[in-house]
Amino acid sequence: MLGAMQDWDLKVTHLIDHAAREHGTREIVTYWADGSETRTNWAGIRRDALKMTQALRAAGIGKGDRIATLAMNHSRHLVTWYGAVGVGGILHTINPRLFEDQLEYIANHAEDRVLLYDAAFQPIIDKMKPHWNTIEHYICFDSGDHSPSFEDWIAAYDDDTEWAEVDERDPCMLCYTSGTTGNPKGVLYEHRSTMLHAVLGIQPASFDFDARSVMLPVVPMFHAASWGLPWAGAATGVKFVYSAVNEPTVLCELMKREGVTHSAGVPTVWLSIFQHCDATGEPLPKLQQAIIGGSAAPRFMIERLMKNGARVAHAWGMTETSPIGTVGAPTHNWDELSFDEQVDIVTRQGQPIFGVELRTVDLDDFTRELPRDGKTSGALQIRGPWVIKRYFKAEEDATTPDGWFDTGDVGVIWPNGTLQLTDRTKDVIKSGGEWISSVELENAAVGHPAIAEAAAIGMPHPKWDERPVLFVVKKEGQDVSASEVKDYLSDHVAKWWLPDAVEFVDDIPHTATGKISKKDLRARFADYTLEA
User: Fold this and answer.
1) CA 107, CA 115: separation in Å to the nearest integer?
2) Catalytic residue among 177, 321, 418, 422
3) Domains along the chain?
4) Of 161, 253, 258, 435, which residue is the catalytic one?
5) Secondary structure (DSSP) of 3-15
6) Less CB within 10 Å around the terminal CB: N or C of the chain?
């Protein structure tokens, strides 16, 4: 027997149709790299996306073609998210911070046919053009000096068209991993998976949006689908405030002037805002919600945001999970908890949102599932309707025989389902048969007032197999000794976790996506030895 409900394919173009129809006058503000500002609204975004669809069709671009962007956060980039899929194409956001060999690889592997880019990245375009084999059309978002400008390109069209007919199982977006080991891998999102992620995973469970929300996303639109915000924002008609530059002075001014209620970024973003406010004496911007992801946020950061009145949503995910997997949310007894108990919960990475299932398995036996007891750490696995099954152009599935994706993270699951990440499987330190979390060591260390950044890695030890060594960058104008760092850590981590050595360095290597590169740090100190 068939059901008696209407068929309505889950296509992302429904999101922009809804935003324009129900929230058409809600503003989209852009602060550009040259200091100028523009204002449009959701109706304007849809109008320009339809024009872009017409322009793409005129260029011979259609269903299944890859349309790439190399751009920061702004309204024209948002138009492209809907204009690319509107023609039946696949949006491919490229991270401009990637290394040249990675930029060459992913554009060619994706077989991009169109590239839209910011004028600030013209030097990258000029250098990479001879190496990109499939790109036929270059459009510049904010200048016509070297390529047709975006505004001129779509100006020839009148928006009198329809979105392409696609199936909800058709792909709509392509994102590549950062490629810390080997070449980056492509993750191909479907219309259906994206809609489920936006409506179930992000709104309202993750970001608590409604039509009053004003969101300034610091997370770039080129990284991990901007955490799904361009889709979820359309679903609820939020006001977006975009900045093409991520200077804390600009961000703080925009937050205050535009009445920003929500913001999302990695811990380094919040740290830079703290430093700016401390240096200038300005108060922190007042936010209703601060979303932190990308890496584990240290306790002092969460405490400061919460004391400033923000609800802190600590989130976890990855490109392969579209990307939201878990997010911090108040527990049923939240109001009965002390402030410190609330912070204890928020420092974890949150609970799985509806649609996501998590489990941990033994690091030495991936077939043995571990208890959700808040103590036993293991390799984290995930499954759900917006979790990857197979990488783009791969011949084999990326999941286990029983359908789980191995995230590469190490974590603990508490009895109430809360996830607490403790490390990456390739970074966890095994000393004398026991596991030490490099992440917890690092987060404890950066709580010291003289430490700007810290990275812990396991070094070979003649007795214990491995012991942690902590590499530290001091804050400018601050001084601290190795013994003082160890004394400080002794109050925050188990005694047997204390690093055997603390080494002060001028810098710590990072990946193209801004994460600490343990691989490069190990290579830099390949000859380092510890004595028994």
Assistant:
1) 9
2) 177
3) 13-346 (3.40.50.12780), 356-424 (2.30.38.10), 429-524 (3.30.300.30)
4) 435
5) --SPP----THHH
6) N
Q: Is 177 a catalytic residue?
A: yes
Give the span between the Cα atoms of 400 and 411, in whole angstroms. Answer: 18
Q: Does residue 181 have a pLDDT over 70?
A: no
The pLDDT mean for the chain works out to: 93
For the chain, the distance separating the N- and C-terminal CA atoms, rounded to the nearest angstrom, is 73
Of 331, 425, 430, 519, which one is the catalytic site residue?
430
- Contacts with 247 (C-beta within 8 Å, 6 or more apart), sequence order: none
Its sign, for the CA torsion 392, 395, 400, 406, is negative
Q: Is the pLDDT of residue 513 over 70?
A: no
The Cα angle at residue 412 between residues 486 and 402, in degrees rounded to 5: 145
pTM score? 0.87
Entry field: residues in the chain: 532
**Cα-Cα-Cα-Cα dihedral sign, residues 481, 487, 491, 496:** positive
Alpha carbon separation from 189 to 88, 197, 352 (Å, rounded): 13, 10, 20
Which position among 303, 320, 440, 453 bears the catalytic label?
Answer: 320
> What CA–CA distances, in Å, run from 300 to 100, 273, 281, 482, 514?
36, 14, 19, 21, 21
163 is catalytic: no
